[in-house]
Design a protein that fits this description.
155 residues; alpha/beta; D-tyrosyl-trna(Tyr) Deacylase, Chain: A; six-stranded mixed β-sheet; 4 helices; 8 strands; globular
Length: 155
């Protein structure tokens, strides 16, 4: 499971002209579900995100998590995060979870965040969405439940 977190002062998502989610201060989360992901992947990321200290304290140091600042999350499904783009010029999506599984784990992830005490707004799984946000910092992190991205960075 792959999550792109962006620290925002506001974010919203629209589907066909209808706003389906809006938050103020918090996290815009783009979530990609990989074919072999399980609930423990969602549990891991939800726990990590709920306690991830990326919000500023009085000295503007990243010492506060989303719960401490009273923030919210806007979670939008994004299967393109699971794309295989290494060969050719067209991305392949065979590594993304099938829609039924992807939606189930997306909903489970959102519910896990809610159970942590975080207000969660969403888009609609599988829909064509328009996302607007103001990234503060800018601050953006890529987290994945397999920690592959971080292992690459730490080589």
């Amino acid at each position: 499971m792959i999550a792109v977190l962006q620290r925002v002062s506001r974010a919203s998502v629209r589907i066909g002209g209808e706003e389906t989610g809006r938050i103020g201060t918090g996290l815009m989360i783009l979530l990609g579900v990989v074919a072999d992901d399980q609930k423990q992947d969602a549990d891991y990321l939800a726990e990590k995100i709920s306690r991830f200290r990326i919000f500023g304290d009085e000295e503007n140091r990243m010492n506060r998590d989303i719960l401490e600042i009273g923030g919210a999350c806007l979670v939008v499904s994004q299967f393109t995060l699971c794309a295989d783009w290494l060969k050719g010029r067209r991305p392949g999506f065979t590594k993304a979870a099938p829609p039924e599984k992807g939606e189930e784990l997306y909903e489970y992830f959102c519910e896990r965040l809610r159970r942590s005490g975080i207000p969660v707004e969403t888009g609609r799984f599988g829909a064509m969405m328009s996302v607007a946000l103001v990234n503060e910092g800018p601050v953006t992190f890529i987290l994945d439940s397999e920690k592959k991205f971080q292992r690459h960075i730490n080589k």
